[in-house]
Amino acid sequence: MSLMARPTLWLRPFLLSGLLATACVLPGCASLQAPSVANTAAGSAVQDYDGRFAVRYEQNGEIKNAYGNFAWRQRGDAVTLQLLNPLGQTQAIVYSTPGEAKLELPNRAPLTGPRLEQVMRDALGFALPVAGLRYWLQLEAAPNTHGTLTRDPQTGRITQLQQDGWTIDYLSYTDTQPAHIKRVNLSREVNGEPLQVKLVLDN
What InterPro entries does this protein map onto (predicted)? Predict the structure, then answer.
């Protein structure tokens, strides 16, 4: 049974040895130095998220999976996304601003390009929608393109957002006031190949 058909699997701690080889789809399986938050400072808005991710994607007709933890640090328009394997080793670091993107991988020169998703896809086989996530994690549609929101008629909470070819399903919220998103699924097709991303936010 696949990961997407077993929702409880991706909520468990990613320490099973069977997952380690899969987590190493991120090139190199060697540690990178964690980024300094100060290096991404821009503007006054601050958003920090830590959690777990599971990605299911298709590459050259083959279904692949990637699992691990992530640390999201947003300072104004600048985002640093750190992807870690289940043992806490940094596997990739993404730096994103509206005009520039950089991807650092173990034992390789940094990759840069104006379109971050293409840079990530070329290097990792899949791409996370960092530009959109900076808004979607705050329950907002990204500006400049049309987004369609669906709300629960009883609670008024957003349950789904569709934008830029992505479907974002908000599955659960925290019990805090105000409530924050706790679990979110993202899905789309890229050149006919499906891509599914599951995120659990721990804070």
Answer: LolA/LolB/LppX, OM_lipoprot_LolB
